Amino acid sequence: MDKASIRREALQNLKGMTSSQRARWSQQLTERLLASAVYQSAQSLGTYLSMPHEFDTSYLIEQAQKDGKQIFIPKTYSQGRMDFVEYNPDDLVKSRFGVWEPGTYSQPVDKSVIKLVHVPGLAWNHAGFRVGYGGGFYDRYLVDYQGKTASTLAYFQVYDFEPDLFDIPVKELLIFEELF
């Protein structure tokens, strides 16, 4: 199956989940991520502000704030460029993709500041390579990123596919294995 087909199928499956299924999936995987050594050892976290059909990052952001971690979220630019900026819920705007992201007052931080990046996607293979929405933002960002990476996904987001040359694998996959 090619990436475009995987992208369509995974997106359809995600959008087919009920809100209670998504909440259970998100809460349980957040607890697993919070208990992981990769999270525990990180003083800072780069994560995304989820869309309604995605893994709900609000639980993760809330707990990371309580844990005293610095939280950074992505800001996208043209040509697939992306930076992370400090999370400020009072400075958010809707991007051209319909995603909440930092507004104009946010300043990018150096990659070395972020110790763990929580990487979104639509599908992953067992080696950690992912299929995202097709913009290549995370692959470009992660190409020279030295910190740790993790993704939270449901069992139905695991596919068998060959990565492209420019794909960057996620180092740790937390997979929700339960049937809904």
UniProtKB/TrEMBL annotation:
Its EC number is 6.3.3.2. InterPro entries: FTHF_cligase (IPR002698), FTHF_cligase-like_sf (IPR024185), NagB/RpiA_transferase-like (IPR037171). GO terms for molecular function: 5-formyltetrahydrofolate cyclo-ligase activity; ATP binding; metal ion binding. Its cofactor is Mg(2+). GO terms for biological process: folic acid-containing compound biosynthetic process; tetrahydrofolate interconversion. Keywords: ATP-binding, Ligase, Magnesium, Metal-binding, Nucleotide-binding. It catalyses: (6S)-5-formyl-5,6,7,8-tetrahydrofolate + ATP = (6R)-5,10-methenyltetrahydrofolate + ADP + phosphate. The keyword Metal-binding applies. Coiled coil: none annotated. Substrate binds at residues 49, 54. ATP binds at residues 3-7, 130-138. Belongs to the 5-formyltetrahydrofolate cyclo-ligase family. This is 5-formyltetrahydrofolate cyclo-ligase. The lineage of its organism: Bacteria, Bacillati, Bacillota, Bacilli, Lactobacillales.
